[in-house]
Design a protein that fits this description.
By secondary structure, the chain is an alpha+beta fold. It is built from three helices and eleven strands.
Length: 193
């Protein structure tokens, strides 16, 4: 029995090492790359392309699941993917944001009353994967309201990915699991030209 456990642990370690090696060789899927490359060029900064998305979404900018594509005057961007479930099966909604040249959490209109509040608040944990140390925020504003959000800094810029907590992903543990897979799947697309 002990030999079986040792063999299983060794196989698991080899599988994890193989997955880590494969992760280093990933690239933005060819059918998604054109849109992410165009975004990187427009904001003149690196952007993160996912290589995995929660079912049924893909991350093809300009594709059937794209919901929002917005670039601000300050080069900040929001790219959102959404699928409204059929017959009450729920929504799957993922947002990607970037704030080139700024590492400060942006301010959003207060949900009640006047003034502004931090767009991402109530940090509850950290997720580390793929060379990224992301802070997990559970109270968010604007397009990220009712989402769990991961935020991290890279090259003097702030980046986020968030997923809506709603059926079919009702439980925050399911959404956190998905966000962990997303974080692990991210690859940098650098501007060209």
């Amino acid at each position: 029995m002990r030999a079986l456990l040792v063999a299983a642990a060794a196989a698991l370690a080899l599988t994890a090492a193989g997955a880590a090696g494969a992760a280093g060789k990933r690239s933005c899927p060819s059918s998604w790359l054109k849109g992410w490359q165009a975004l990187a060029n427009k904001v003149d900064a690196p952007v993160y392309c996912p290589t995995w998305m929660p079912n049924p979404l893909d991350a093809r900018i300009g594709g059937q699941y794209q919901d929002i594509y917005s670039i601000g005057k300050d080069r900040s961007f929001l790219v959102s993917f959404l699928e409204h479930g059929d017959l009450g099966s729920g929504d799957v909604h993922v947002n990607f944001r970037g704030y080139p040249g700024s590492t400060t959490i942006p301010r959003c209109p207060a949900p009640v009353g006047k003034g502004k509040v931090a767009c991402f608040s109530e940090p509850v944990a950290h997720m580390k994967s793929n060379g990224i140390d992301a802070t997990v925020y559970q109270v968010n504003q604007g397009a990220d309201q009712w989402h769990i959000l991961l935020a991290w800094r890279h090259n003097r810029s702030l980046y986020t990915v968030s997923e809506h907590v709603i059926a079919p992903y009702r439980f925050s543990t399911q959404v956190k699991h998905n966000l962990g897979l997303l974080l692990n799947s991210l690859v940098l697309v650098r501007p060209q030209g």
